[in-house]
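Input record, target 12 of the design panel.
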């Protein structure tokens, strides 16, 4: 009898980075539900706050995000095992704000003293939408307790840009580059399955 149920967890990489990186704060909770032998609808919800302390400007980006999609387990378990090697697809969206604190006007000749501008301009009601491909592994280390590791490749679908400023960091998407619509990410998480029902499975042996 194989277990089917709701699995709830958290991304461990974000609170660890929060402790180690003074410019970052974030968290993500996630869940999935096994509806067939290999298919798991999934959701991820989180919040990120990132400070840019660059040579020519200081800025901040912060807000919340959500991702909706599903994972498909390509690994064939023996009876009694519920590990995964999976591929997944997500639709992600974020609502956030950016704040430009100050900047220095670029001067390639360095003839005049640096022109420093104090701005403190906040850009609200920004949003972004993207699609995300995931690949990862999940291993049941204790009964109903799972550890996982995954990588992400993302592509922006649409976003609204602040006036006279660039999109720097999109919560849930990570760093945004003006010359590329693609992004990458990774994470590792812990989750717990709440069993709701069991289904019989027969192991075929050739």
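The sequence produced for target 12 reads:
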């Amino acid at each position: 009898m194989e277990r089917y149920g709701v699995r709830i967890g958290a991304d461990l990489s974000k609170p660890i980075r929060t402790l180690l990186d003074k410019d970052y704060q974030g968290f993500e909770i996630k869940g999935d539900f096994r509806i067939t032998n290999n298919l798991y609808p999934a959701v991820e919800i989180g919040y990120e706050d990132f400070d840019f302390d660059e040579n020519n400007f200081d800025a901040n980006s912060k807000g919340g995000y959500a991702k909706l999609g599903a994972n498909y387990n390509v690994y064939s378990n023996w009876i009694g095992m519920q590990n995964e090697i999976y591929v997944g697809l997500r639709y992600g969206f974020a609502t956030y704000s950016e704040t430009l604190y100050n900047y220095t006007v670029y001067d390639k000749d360095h003839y005049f003293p640096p022109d420093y501008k104090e701005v403190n301009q906040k850009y609200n009601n920004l949003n972004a939408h993207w699609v995300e491909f995931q690949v990862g592994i999940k291993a049941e280390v204790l009964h109903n307790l799972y550890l996982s590791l995954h990588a992400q490749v993302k592509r922006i679908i649409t976003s609204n840009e602040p006036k006279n400023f660039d999109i720097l960091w999109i919560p849930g998407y990570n760093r945004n580059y003006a010359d590329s619509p693609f992004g990458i990410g990774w994470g590792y998480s812990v989750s717990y399955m709440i069993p709701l029902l069991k289904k019989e499975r027969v192991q075929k042996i050739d």
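Residues 2-199 form a domain with the Porin fold (CATH 2.40.160.20).
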